[in-house]
Design a protein that fits this description.
By secondary structure, the protein is an alpha+beta fold. It contains four helices and three strands; from the N terminus they run ααβββαα. It has helices spanning about 1-5, 10-20, 95-110, 115-119; strands spanning about 25-30, 40, 80-85. It has a three-stranded antiparallel beta sheet. The chain is globular, with a radius of gyration of 14 Å.
Length: about 120
C-alpha cells in the first residue's frame, strides 16, 4: 500500500517522499514483517489506538512488544527492522492525518484498474 501511494517500489526509493509525506515522522521497515512483502511501521501518538482502524493498516496491540530498530540503524539490514525515515528524537511522532492520507492514497491506487495491473 505504501509503495502504491508513493509510486515507488522499494523502501530505499520511498525514503525521501515518505519523510516529506509524514513531516519527518519516524517510520521503519521490516522485510520479515508480512512474509515476502515486508511491512512498514509508523510511530503514532498513543491516542490513535482508541480510533477505529484504517482499512489496510494494522494497529499494534497496546501492551504488545514491538521490535524497533536502534536509532542508528538507518540502512537496510539483513534481518530485522531499519529506519526508513529516521527517528529524530524523543517525542517526534507521525501525524495521524498523514498516515490516513497515505493509506487512503495507496488503497485508491490499488483499487483502480491501473493499480491492480501494477500491484
Amino acid at each position: 500500500m505504501v509503495h502504491a501511494a508513493i509510486g515507488l517500489d522499494s523502501p530505499e526509493a520511498c525514503a525521501a517522499p515518505l519523510a516529506d509525506a509524514l513531516e519527518g515522522g519516524p517510520l521503519f521497515y521490516n522485510a520479515e514483517g508480512f512474509g515476502r512483502e515486508g511491512s512498514y511501521t509508523a510511530l503514532l501518538p498513543a491516542r490513535v489506538a482508541q480510533l477505529p482502524p484504517m482499512p489496510g493498516t494494522v494497529a499494534h496491540p497496546q501492551r504488545g512488544l514491538l521490535l524497533v530498530p536502534a536509532p542508528d540503524v538507518i540502512e537496510r539490514v539483513e534481518t530485522g527492522p531499519w529506519w526508513v525515515t529516521q527517528l529524530d528524537g524523543p517525542g517526534l511522532l507521525c501525524p495521524p492525518d498523514r498516515i490516513v492520507a497515505l493509506a487512503s492514497s495507496g488503497r485508491d491506487v490499488l483499487r483502480s484498474p491501473e493499480g491492480r495491473r501494477d500491484a
